[in-house]
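U., I forgot to send this yesterday:
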Amino acid sequence: MALITCKDCNKEISDKADSCVHCGCPTERTMQKREQSKFRKTSLILLVFALIIVVLVVLFIFGLWNNGFGLLDYGLKEWFS
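Result:
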């Protein structure tokens, strides 16, 4: 266990601590965990959004969304067959 200095109160705390026991300031380790968590959430949201867009595009192209009338009914069947 190593000791690090708190950036707010300048007292020594454990490097394993999530926050300073003296002033409550989060440690760098905690801040990194929060950033990683934000990145994961953002990535997951973007992935879900992209999948929804892909599904909607496929449904539109094959006419499953507009009561069987899609881009393939406009004479584009030759492009996809």
